[in-house]
Amino acid sequence: MLNKLIVALLYTALSFTAIAAHGLDLSELETLREGSLRKLVFHTEPKPVSQIPFTTPDGTEFQLSDFKGQYVLLNFWATWCVPCRKEMPDLNGLSKTFSGKGLQVVTVASGHNPLPAIKKFYQENTLDALPMFLDLKGVFSRDMDVLFLPITVLLSPEGIEIARLKGDAEWNSPEANIFFNALVEGLPDAALIKGD
After folding, report:
1. Where does the UniProt annotation place the signal sequence (predicted)?
2. Among 83, 122, 149, 196, who pairs with 127 as Cys (CB 3.0-4.6 Å)?
């Protein structure tokens, strides 16, 4: 038990040191949450993430560790979830804006979602910048403590959970763009944009 506690404390210290190494003061970053991003709650201690795989429609497996080295906005959604459907075009826009800039938007269809319905939804909404990942049995989602949808989790480049938002959000709003620019680029420019 003592060994696990020591490992957990070291993990926490190293994780927050790593976030600070990216030039981020989380308390300053939190002040940039405007509009629906106010629901994004930063953890006082980072949380480890699931290593259970999720798949592409052709069965190729991925794990969250495959995305290390950049921030990840991990969204759990379903075709039958109205708030999920509402926010997916915004997530697509956010993905386009930050593609190649240090933020990867990863969307995972959780639970019962027939593949034809997912493909139809992607096509009807021109979701051309979002990966199509599946967690058909919900095992990965449950291991990530996703008990309802939508849930969006923010991971650091080191692959740890640093924040979580329950419900939907306006992911491609001007306020969200300022926030994510600050996240990937550092805070000074974002503070100027906001007028501080």
Report:
1. 1-20
2. 122
What total number of domains does the chain contain?
A: 1
Domain extent, residue 162, equals: 2-194
Among all chains, which residue has been given the structure tokens 């949808």?
Answer: 149
Residues recorded for the chain? 196
Query: Which range among 24-33, 35-44, 100-109, 116-125 shows the weakest confidence by mean pLDDT?
Result: 24-33
| CA angle, 79 then 84 then 89, to 5° | 100
Per-residue model confidence (pLDDT) at position 28: 79
Exposed/middle/buried for residue 9 (C-beta within 10 Å: 0-12, 13-18, 19+): exposed
Do the beta carbons of residue 111 and residue 78 sit within 8 Å?
Answer: yes
Give the full edge-to-edge strand order of the sheet including 103-110: 40-47, 161-166, 151-155, 71-77, 103-110, 133-135, 54-55, 61-62
The CATH number linked to 71 is 3.40.30.10
Query: What is the pairing mode between strands 40-47 and 161-166?
Result: antiparallel
